[in-house]
Amino acid sequence: MKKITARSLACLFLSFILVAGTAVFTFKFLVKGGDWAAFPSNRHLYTNGVLNCGRVLDKNGKVLADYNNDKWTYSSSSVIRRATLHAVGDPQGLIGTGALSRFADKLTGYNIVTGANTIIPGGRDVYLTIDADLCAAAYEALNGHNGMVGVYNYKTGEIICMVSSPTYDLNQGVDPEDKANDGVFINRLTSAKFIPGSTFKIITATAALEKISDIHTRTFNCTGSTDINGSKITCPGVHGTMNFEEALNHSCNCVFGTLAVEMGADVLSDYADSTGLTDSYSINGINTMKSSFDFEGDGAPDLAWSGVGQGRDLVNPCSMMIFCGAVANEGSAAVPQILSYTAFREGVRNSLYIKHFTGNLINSSTAKELKNMMRTDVINNYGQKNFPGLEICAKSGTAQTDHSDADNAWFVGFLDDEDHPLAFVVMVEEGGSGARTAGRVANTVLQQAIKS
Asked: What is the model's pTM?
């Protein structure tokens, strides 16, 4: 009797393991089945390691990549080919954010019922959310500089512009072993992080608005520098007496460095987390890089520089763009998406993608205050005449780096426009002045975005 009981328990345990294993496999099959089928070793879908079916199109139906006659062909415009490289990708899969590798299962028409042996053969059309002409305008506006431009609808999540440079022409190819091509495969919007410069002051400002009770009644005096624990924090100029809003408009290092030390490392760390900068967002399965900070550093002087966006601050541009969208949307924003829908070659849609929203990245009342401050920054500092017809709220940044004598130029913000709810981020490497260089790029791209 004891043997029967023991054997029954053993069988019951093994049955449990079998059921649990089957459940795990079924779950992974439902979630990962497309990736398994689209693995490059699948000779039904790949020829010499290159996917052999499907098309990639922009939101307006412009064909960006098409497999026919046993090869991939691309846009007839060399500018569009370069501008959309990191969205389209390359056939070898060297660009991790490219549709040709990320959405390979969708290009094949894979489904959980018939797998890769689709009822209607010939691959599928994958429509991206980007506007190819807008991306081309952004690429040309970068004027040969390395950098990136991102623009997205903070209410729907659609990325309409995603440009990263350096880039190359898919019709000409590139040697991945050549060190001269370092960085060409990296999408600088999603997969990199940079010293943010004064754009980080909108995070420090968010913390100050909520943590310093008398911030609205305080006055500050900038003489061009201030001493913090024996170290000099400098400003580009002498700003004189000002209130908090004016300090943001002047982008005063002395004020924001002092406030950072007053609030402390723990507060800045909490706000870097709560505003989403240290999150990794999933853009249709493309995971963004997390920003990183070291607010403790070597004491108060390092903390002061971190508060103004220097020091050890490294920010992912996409997360900054999303935060700007949350400010515009009074608390939260749509999570970006690059995949619009898939369709049969005959043009009939066969998929639907549902938008998702971030959690609350900023209190609604704080968002309203920060929005007003960023708007007056444009009016009082950057000049509305440089952004004709745009109700733009923005913050510039001029970031010093250890790798170059020239500064990186940043410009981030959003349009306060119900008809065009767009948030943006621009970074021009070695561009110098954020407002002048990156601001000019932002204006060019946004002007075309509202027309299209």
From this structure: 0.89
